[in-house]
User: Which sequence fits this backbone?
């Protein structure tokens, strides 16, 4: 990454203009050309330095439901349960964490009813209780890495 | 908490057309408009409205923090008095090394943490140092905290909400 790559990442973490020629507007701010900005973003995406370019949607504000949930899974049963969660489409992310509550996943559904139904399926198929932790309040979300 | 914002069929089509990102061409909103079948001006007006209502958090880039060298990601969990969690949430959420910050329900007696902050560092030593800074900020409201490191990614897909709207969500 060179200076321009860094400037693009830092600038566009904060927002991207909504106008007819948004790349040209960013280019003017960063003293380069529209085509250069476009090809840099393209390269940063291809190299995996950026994981996304575009709008980030807010699930709950669109009527959806997304919740963090955890389960206490003994090591001997870990792979079986992970496999079950892998096959459940409502489970978006699933991480192993070093804690008695050892499996942490994000459950994303279009409605609250589907959320409750998915929890029930998970508890039934795995045989373990789910500690559901939907957010009560959100204080900040976003990534602001200075690079 | 669920705050619904009425999205109509055209909004949903815009969401679908941009779920994998904005097109990398000089007039990206015009390209989206062609796909949705409405004028570019309407796409822009609707996206601005969704930004204002919060249905779109923001438009921009998402860096891959692993690729940037932030390889240690600690989910820090805290037991703080319920009546102080909002005030502390605003303070901790404002720290630039915290990417996600929430109040979540306790599950007593097994889980007594009600405050979550995701902390990113280059290594666990750095995360530990950053967590000490949060602890100082929280002061005597800190009745106990832990750092949970992820040891393995078991599943990672884009969040898909139903079949109609595919969404990418920062969560």
Assistant:
């Amino acid at each position: 990454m060179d200076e321009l790559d860094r400037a693009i990442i830092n600038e566009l973490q904060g927002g991207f203009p909504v106008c007819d020629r948004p790349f040209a507007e960013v280019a003017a701010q960063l003293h380069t050309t529209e085509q250069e900005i476009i090809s840099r973003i393209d390269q940063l995406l291809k190299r995996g330095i950026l994981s996304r370019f575009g709008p980030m949607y807010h699930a709950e504000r669109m009527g959806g439901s997304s919740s963090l949930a955890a389960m206490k899974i003994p090591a001997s049963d870990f792979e079986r349960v992970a496999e079950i969660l892998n096959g459940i489409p409502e489970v978006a992310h699933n991480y192993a964490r070093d804690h008695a509550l050892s499996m942490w996943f994000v459950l994303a559904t279009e409605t609250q009813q589907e959320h409750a139904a998915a929890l029930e399926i998970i508890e039934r198929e795995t045989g373990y209780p789910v500690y559901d932790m939907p957010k009560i309040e959100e204080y900040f979300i976003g990534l602001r890495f200075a690079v | 908490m669920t705050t619904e914002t009425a999205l109509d069929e055209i909004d949903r089509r815009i969401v679908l057309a941009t779920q994998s990102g904005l097109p990398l061409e000089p007039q990206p909103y015009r390209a989206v408009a062609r796909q949705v079948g409405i004028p570019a001006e309407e796409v822009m007006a609707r996206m601005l409205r969704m930004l204002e209502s919060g249905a779109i958090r923001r438009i921009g880039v998402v860096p891959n923090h692993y690729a940037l060298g932030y390889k240690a990601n600690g989910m820090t969990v805290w037991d703080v008095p319920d009546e102080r969690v909002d005030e502390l949430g605003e303070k901790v959420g404002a720290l630039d090394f915290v990417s996600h910050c929430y109040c979540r329900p306790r599950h007593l007696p097994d889980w007594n943490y009600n405050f979550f902050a995701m902390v990113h560092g280059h290594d666990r030593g750095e995360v530990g140092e950053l967590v000490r800074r949060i602890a100082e900020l929280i002061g005597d409201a800190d009745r106990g905290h832990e750092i949970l490191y992820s040891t393995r990614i078991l599943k990672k897909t884009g969040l898909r909400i139903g079949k109609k709207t595919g969404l990418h969500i920062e969560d």
